[in-house]
Structure formats: structure tokens, C-alpha cells
């Protein structure tokens, strides 16, 4: 029994794969370029983090001589946790922006 090949379906599948591949590249680029700024609870430390989770800069505001190493460590730990959460949030938003139209096409 010979199978009938639906060339239109194959062409559509190839087009969808190419579009998905383009959107994935767009997403990867956006995630690497999008930077979020977060601050420690006492606002003495600022961390810049990409949506990919790469910390690109750490800025200390004010002087450090009035605090103990343990206090500074707590602030650093808190801002790094915030940076991780901010990167995840930014990735999710970018994912929705980039792939939202693709899901809409599938539903249509």
C-alpha cells in the first residue's frame, strides 16, 4: 500500500521549523543583551545581571568601614539572590514576547 505524501504539509512544517529557529535565535540574543538592575536591601550594593543570568557589574555605594564582613556578606548574598530572580523574571517576559505570536499561530 503506497502512502500519499502531503507536500503542502511538509512545506508548512519546514516553514514552521525555520520560523521557530529564527525566534529561538532572537530569544537567545535578547536574553544575552537584556540587563536588569537590582539592589541590596539596604541599597548599598547594585548588581547588573542579564536575563541569561550573567552578572555584568557590581557597584558598591558608600563606604564599607562602618560594617562588619558578616553584614556585607549578607547584603551581597541578598542582592545575588535578587539578581537570580530578576534574571529568571526577565527571561520569562522575553520568552512570552518572542514566542507568544508563535503560540497564537498554532491556536489559529
UniProtKB/TrEMBL annotation:
Pfam families named in the record: YbaB_DNA_bd
InterPro entries in alphabetical order: YbaB-like_sf (IPR036894), YbaB/EbfC (IPR004401)
Recorded GO MF terms: DNA binding
Protein name: YbaB/EbfC DNA-binding family protein
Species this protein is from: Mangrovihabitans endophyticus
Organism lineage: Bacteria, Bacillati, Actinomycetota, Actinomycetes, Micromonosporales
